[in-house]
Amino acid sequence: MTTELAIARRAFRQLRVGAVVCAVAFGLTVASSATTYASSFPTPASRQQLAASVGGDVGFAVLFGPVDRIDTVGGYAAYKSFVFLTSIGAVWAALAATRVLRGEEDAGRWQLVLAGRTRAARATVATTAALGLAVAIVFAGTAVLTALAGRDPKVGLGVGGSLLYAASLAVAPAVFGAVGAVTSQLGRSRRVASALALGVVGASFVVRMVADAGPSTRWLLWATPFGWTERIRPFTEDDPRPLVVAALAVAALVAAAAVLAGRRDVGDGTFSSADAAPPRTAGLGSPFGLAVRLERASILGWFAGVAATGLILGSLSEITTHPAPASMSGMLDRFALQGAFLDQFLGISFLFLASLAALLAASQVGAAGEEEESGRLVHALGGTTGRTAWFAGRLALAAVAVVAASVLGGGATWVGARARGVPVGAGELLGAGLNVAPSALVALGVGALSLALAPAVAGRVVYALVAWSLIADVVGALVSGTGWLAQLSLFHHMALAPAQGVDPVTLVATLAVAGGLAAVATAAFARRDLDAG
Amino acid sequence: MSAAPAAIRTEGLTKRFGRTTALDGLDLEIAPGEVFGYLGPNGAGKSTTIALLLGLIRPTAGTASIFGADPWREATTAHRHVAYVPSEANLWPGLTAAETLRFLANVHGTVDEAYRDELLERFDLDPDKKVRALSHGNRQKVLLVAAFASRADLLLLDEPTTGLDPLKEQVFQACVAEAHEQGQTVLLSSHVLSQVEATCDRVAMLRAGRIIEIGHLDVLRGLVAVQVRAVLDGAVPDLAGVPGVGNVVVQGSTVDCEVSGSMQPLLAVLADAGVHHLTTREPSLEELFVRHYEEP
Predict the structure, then answer these.
(1) B8-216 CATH, one of 3.40.220.10, 3.90.550.10, 3.40.50.300, 1.10.490.10
(2) Which residues of B touch A377 (CB under 8 A)?
(3) Which residue among A267, A383, A532 places its CB closest to the CB of B51?
């Protein structure tokens, strides 16, 4: 038991920073949206009017969850933060779980752990317990900050409601952390395990959107962890039943992970490929060629995710062709969208696609950082390829992938929309897709700078930046004078085309920032000591 | 001015990491064709030297050159001459050994394919196995095969045989000898002192970032006393006053002692007592090593 305690403590040390950051981000997001709402809509009449203007609209329900209870502070705060916080929590927990389980195994440290007085199954459970503690920190931080904000009589959120709300937000990280524990047993490397876990997150997200698309599919909410969070409806209906479902799911997943861990060989996976193969010469001619060869599967996976998201959002856009509510302006404080409701729906859809393109950049940055941290880069640079050329090649590969994913997202959205007979132009949506690329390239530029300065954490820096960008404007509104925080969002200056007009100057400026970051990073990378592994 | 540049030349080469001085004013010159042993305890600065010679890290002070090229500023020129084997083979787990060898050959630019195939046989390495399925020692073989098959002018070997079994250790030593015959230069950083004794012409000993001893192995050995054991016909005479003799241990008619400098005074005394049997033993590099590093 003391061995397991030591294992859990060690895993927790790797998780605690992320957990605290998540807790603070969650708490501040909720507190700020509640406070802002209370001051923007001080009277019951103004709240009724807001609710009446958008309430029950299915287009927004698909994107952000049901909008019908926004006539209360709690209902609004829950609605406002639902999609972004659950997504951030899910991605964080999935990646954290595969890092402390399969990542440790990849690095050979798990084998050291198992040399102690423990078994693979017990060590796995101990590690997931640390993950549970990390999720508990997210829960506690969110609950405390929500309750503190709720003490303001204008806001008026009770302790019980705050606790239930924090619990509802803990559902996604808890369940997807457990999913990551299972995929860590299935995949044979951290990258495969992470990709599988993120695939489950993506599929669960899509199921939630479909569930919110109409009454006939509403039952699907029970099939996705995001639906469980939504069904709880804290502050309004306070239904705790989904928490029981979530707890059962976590228990089942952890048990499955433990059983799988006990059955397989260490270093192996349940899904494994052959250990021997005839040589394939593709991509062995240069370090750049090798990078293309090694990253191809990952990039194609992201393309598939982007295409699926575009297709689904495009086809769901059909529901917006029914008459739109009269006034959206009060509701859409974040996005200040204009134009037809269809365009507004599509504009937000492209924000999701922009996030995916930026996450693709994060994944490429993480892969490049791992190349150095693992000690492999030394061999790639042992010949006539200079380090500037290698670095620029990695950035170019990632940039091409980001731009291709952006255009692909636009194209897939168009295909999805046209398949349902929605009247949108291919050029318009391809352009809207291309419009998200510069912002994602800024994420790549920040990643490049992190690679040049701190390669070990470069991938995580970009993941955190994307998460921040999705909640920045909400948190930035918390205290007057902190509005500049919102400016630090990747998407702050990105027009939500096709709803918003694209300003060429902004676009060029964004590209210039991305290019400048990449150039500075390349110069810095050439000047610093390499990690020889 | 010498016509051909040294394979390795460093002048005052210094590397500090924060407050730690990993390498402190290293002056080293290794001629083309030399097999040079680089010794020192963990943390003495051996790997730091090699990282500097590869241009992976930047010197805090001093200069280094590989066949006349600065490894930091002219990394790709310097790399044309160099093949490198670290103590830990971190390779791409999804590539097979053959694919890795092909990649490394393309990166380096030269490969003797016939010799590579021969080395695969001699090291007993299955080229179709993926790296992730290879043991530590087998991964190490991939890099050794790549380095020797490249026929690079300079082999930088940083504890290259960790994880290798004794049979493959012999293959390794044979390969170093073949490289030597080919006129290649080898810098061999190692803890396996028998390996260094078997392969190297000259050695340098490093402590806390500084060279404390450098020279031909035979010369270095001369710095340390020879072990003498004599079994005498009669009683052991008093050896206390004999010049150069120390650490005398007498057990019956057997005497063990150490002799530095000339053997003559000891032999004269022993001959009078009547020698039944006499053995002398040169100090091993290990003893040399222990001598140098044991003292505080």
Answers:
(1) 3.40.50.300
(2) none
(3) A532
Q: Which residue has the tokens 């020192």?
A: B40
Question: How do the domains of chain A map onto residue ranges?
Answer: 1-268, 284-533
Closest approach of B236 to chain A, Cα-based (Å): 55
Q: Give pLDDT tens digits for A367-419.
A: 999 999 999 999 999 888 899 999 999 999 999 999 999 999 999 999 999 99
Percent of chain B at pLDDT > 70 equals 97
Minimum Cα–Cα distance from A383: chain B residue: B108
**Tell me: the pLDDT tens digits for B22-48?**
999 999 999 999 999 999 888 899 999
**Least confident stretch, A147-161, A261-275, A496-510, B12-26:** A261-275
- Percent of chain A surpassing pLDDT 70: 94
- Which H/E stretch holds residue B91? none
Q: Give the separation between CA B100 and CA A227, rounded to whole angstroms.
A: 47
Strands B202-207 and B35-39: parallel
Give, as one character, the DSSP assignment of residue B150.
Answer: T
> Rounded CA gap, A148 and A155, in Å?
10
CA distance A389 to chain B (A): 11
Chain B CB contacts of A527 below 8 Å: 58
Mean pLDDT of chain A: 90
B191: which 2 tokens?
A: 């803890």
Tokens linked to A461: 């820096």
pLDDT confidence tier of residue A335, bands split at 50, 70 and 90: very low
Provide the β-strand partners of residue B26. B13
For the ranges A259-273, A280-294, B87-101, B247-261, the lowest mean pLDDT is seen at: A259-273
Q: What angle do CA A314, A494, A468 make, to 5 degrees?
A: 95
Instruction: Pick the residue of A265, A376, A384 with the most B CBs within 10 A to test the interface with B by mutation.
Output: A384
Asked if residues B188 and B195 have their Cβ atoms less than 8 Å apart, the reply is yes
Find chain A residues with C-beta within 8 A of B102's C-beta.
279, 281, 284
Which residue does chain A place closest to B52, by CA atoms? A529
Convert the pLDDT of each residue in B218-246 to its tens digit.
Answer: 777 776 778 899 999 888 888 888 888 88
Residues of chain B with CATH 3.30.70: 224-294
For B224-294, CATH gives: 3.30.70
Question: What is the SS3 assignment for B34-89?
Answer: CEEEEECCCCCCHHHHHHHHCCCCCCCEEEEEECCECCCCCHHHHHCCEEEECCCC
How far apart (Å, rounded) are the C-alpha atoms in residues B214 and B38?
9
Torsion, Cα A111 A117 A122 A128, to 10 degrees, reads -60
ipTM above 0.90, yes or no: no
**Cβ-Cβ contacts under 8 Å, B93 against chain A:** 189
Kindly state the average pLDDT of the residues B50-75.
Answer: 95
Q: What count of CB pairs under 8 Å joins A to B?
A: 103
What residues of chain A lie within 8 A of the CB of B133, using their CB? 275-276
d(CA A123, CA A11): 10
Evaluate if residue A327 carries a pLDDT over 50: no
Q: Taking CB atoms and an 8 Å limit, are A284 and B57 in contact across chains?
A: no
Alpha-carbon span A110 to A10, nearest angstrom: 11
Are A129 and A97 in contact, with CB atoms under 8 Å apart? Answer: no
Amino acid, res. A331: M
Bridge-based pairing of strands B245-251 and B35-39 is: unpaired
Chain A residues within 8 angstroms (CB to CB) of chain B: 188-189, 267, 274-281, 284-287, 290, 294, 374-376, 378-387, 527-530, 532-533
Please list the residue range(s) of chain B that carry CATH number 3.40.50.300. 8-216
Alpha carbons A227 and A225: distance in angstroms, whole number:
5
Pairing of strands B82-85, B154-158: parallel
Chain A residue numbers touching B131 (CB-CB < 8 A) = none
- What are the pLDDT digits (tens) for B108-119? 988 999 999 999
